[in-house]
Amino acid sequence: MSTTTTCEYLETLYEGYGQRFRMEKLLHEVRTEHQHLVIFENPRMGRVMALDGVIQTTEADEFIYHEMLTHVPILAHGSAKRVLIIGGGDGGMLREVAKHRSVEHITMVEIDGTVVDMCKEFLPNHSKGAFDDPRLSLVIDDGMRFVATTQEKFDVIISDSTDPIGPGEVLFSENFYQACRRCLNEGGILVTQNGTPFMQIEEVKTTAGRLRSLFPDWHFYQAAVPTYIGGAMTFAWGATNTAYRKLSRETLSQRFAGSGIITRYYNPEIHIGAFALPQYVLQAVNKPSND
Ligand code: SAM
User: Fold this and answer.
1) pLDDT value of position 135
2) Which of 64, 162, 235, 264 is 20–30 Å from 273 (CA)?
3) Which of 8-12, 33-37, 47-51, 183-187 is predicted least confidently?
4) What is the pLDDT of residue 1?
């Protein structure tokens, strides 16, 4: 768990290795029904939110993570109309999904309503009003329960969860991936936050073993997000259409231009390159190559 000295926040996600943030100003701290929430100001990273001792998001680098978990699957799909976000209480994922005019309906299932309320108040630059989008259905519930019981179907499912500890653990379970597969329309895509493989290789191995039997095309893609320490972060990819991961640069460029979305990290070349995994990750997931 984290420890806060008079003016420092020490993340202790990993034994014997971690990052610290000077807490210029503590904006809010509360033990919610589900987790310990802290939001503070840091001179370098802007406003920072942590849950149960783990840094969740910072104003400075959230754009990398949120752009890569939304524009990659939505532009690869090409005609996503119904998007499901699991978790994502800070609103950054919702903000990026809502930029896609082609998306007609967004369901967001967040277990902790206090995270939504506090992020609306103290991290307004994350959601930027997206919680008022008329396409949004916000459900305060356990994402596992939702995907296990809903009759709705989705074109893209984005799991923007905490790490597999506490309430987030169930979002890395076999049942969760199976239920997500059930909730996908034909041609649907599931993407999930899947940790930094250099530090959490077991997480990648476990997810690979679970996606392998569920999706005709499963893989991972990567982006370096500074405050998810320990190297590049992996995003799990499960697609019902094997062509989606092999789109040409021209196709992606046309779709990206057509979306009219201005990004700070995502572009078609980054999209394609992100799926190139290093040998140690391929070996860990028993994939001979990036094909
Ligand atoms: N970007 C962060 C990361 O990569 O770790 C995730 C940020 S987002 C704040 C994580 C959200 O997942 C939190 O708001 C948390 O409340 C939510 N969450 C955790 N377990 C959940 C569950 N079982 N169902 C729905 N939401 C959940």
Assistant:
1) 98
2) 162
3) 8-12
4) 47
Atom of ligand 1 nearest to the CA of 225: 4
pLDDT tens track for 40-52 = 999 999 999 999 9
The SS3 of residue 97 is helix
Question: Mutate which of 138, 162, 207, 233 to test ligand 1's pocket (most atoms within 8 Å of Cβ)?
Answer: 162
Residue at which a domain ends, from 17, 40, 57: 57
* 236 pLDDT more than 80: yes
CB 69 within 8 A of CB 83: no
Binding residues: 35, 66, 90, 110, 142-143, 160-163, 167
133 and 275 share one domain:
yes
Query: For residue 68, how far is its CA from the centre of ligand 1 (angstroms)?
Result: 17
Q: Is the pLDDT of residue 182 over 80?
A: yes
Domains of the chain: total = 2
Three-point CA angle 22, 264, 51, nearest 5°: 40
What's 22's domain CATH number? 2.30.140.10
